[in-house]
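Dear Dr. L.,

I hope this message finds you well. Following up on our conversation about the binding site, I have prepared a predicted three-dimensional model of the protein together with SAJ. For your records, I am including the exact sequence and ligand specification that went into the calculation, followed by the structure tokens. Please feel free to forward this to your student if that is useful.
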Amino acid sequence: MTEAVSKTICVVGLGYIGLPTAAVLAAHGAHVIGLDINADVVATINRADIHIVEPGLGPMVRSAVQSGRLRATSNPEPADAFLIAVPTPFMADHEPDLKFVEAAARAIASVIRKGDVIILESTSPVGATAQMAQWIGEMRPDLQLPDPNNAAPGDIYIAHCPERVLPGKVIHELVVNDRVIGGLTPACANAAIGVYKLFVKGACIKTSARTAELCKLAENSFRDVNIAYANELSRICDKLEINVWELISLANLHPRVNILNPGPGVGGHCIAVDPWFIVSSAPEEARLIRTAREVNDDKPGWVIAKVDAAVAAIQSGNPDGLKSEIVIGCFGLAFKADIDDLRESPALDIATRLANQFGKNALIVEPNIAELPSSVAISGAQLVDVSTAFEQADVLVLLVDHASFKTVKPPTDKIVIDTRGIWIANGPSD
Ligand code: SAJ
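The resulting structure of the complex is given below.
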């Protein structure tokens, strides 16, 4: 892979990772075909528009489409390289579900030509890249697959290069982050490096596909374990009546301590999911990783218990009052600050449970969405602005540290449950 201008790259899956990657590749001179099964997504992109919120993405997609360097389709077309960025969720038993990877691999198989590079970017359990190669091989018995046990080169190159970008900073991190590039064979890794060199300014580091797979899972599990520590501390502090935010800021003065922030739980399609892929591969060994997942998954229930206690306190102060008159304000639905992504969001989980209990008396403030999700019980709640919730709610539950929430102060006569530590003071001021 040399000149970007002569290369056609197909990005499979135009979601939170695929679309920015497609746009960045196009901005660096590649001809990009975006492949997605969703006709609405394809139509939106071909209108030079976007269907997700990510800073800087809109203008980039617009110019990529208008310049003719990016085009979306639902029909696989030949390309020099294929980057697969489809979801890898888990099933009810926490086992990884590779059905979207399989569908993507089978979809592109018929258009793969000798010399093509196929890269799995989706976060995957160890062995998934080899499995993907097998699916391609089943569809294309005419192609010699790369084989780590066979010195002869394959007809195509297959690699895993996990995406590592932080939602909210995707456009920047796509270019500057280092990439771990794991080939089924060293030749596969080299070919994949050629693709990333088109747009990555960070280092492109070569390894095996299996190591790259576990590397990504280990990164996100590291963060999950550390957030679990913060979440556990917040429960300990609550029990001991100590301000956890003050405690953490004091502990972090130690030069080798860096405790993360407690919250309402851990969300997103990555950190709340990926550690389970390690647990599933090594259940006996992954004890800490499993416990961290459980600690973080328990946190929404703990927040609900706090709301229940606040409601009980209001009722005990007003025995004639009806529970149905109590109004709860939930601030934030996204899985983290300043994005619109609700996937695996603990805030959405908590707000949904409160909507189940309080119906239209559950007021939701989420500045990044125009309407409440229709598919969940939360639709019985009301989407309102900050001042309405401040005025009408008896209990204010801060769930997401959106920038716009940091600049407002809740009324002092309301009960505040601040899961992110932005409305409560850091400790004694004098
Ligand atoms: N969170 C806390 N406390 C913290 C930090 C985060 O409660 O101190 C919560 C957030 O509110 C959110 C969740 O954790 O609910 C995850 O947020 P995040 O910002 O830690 O991570 P993601 O999911 O947005 O992105 C992560 C990143 N991985 C790491 O930082 C190791 C990113 O680099 C990956 O590319 C991404 O996962 C991914 O796609 O795998």
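In brief: Residues 123, 163-167, 219-220, 223, 227, 260-261, 263, 266-268, 270-271, 335-336 surround SAJ (CB under 6 Å).

With kind regards,
A. P.
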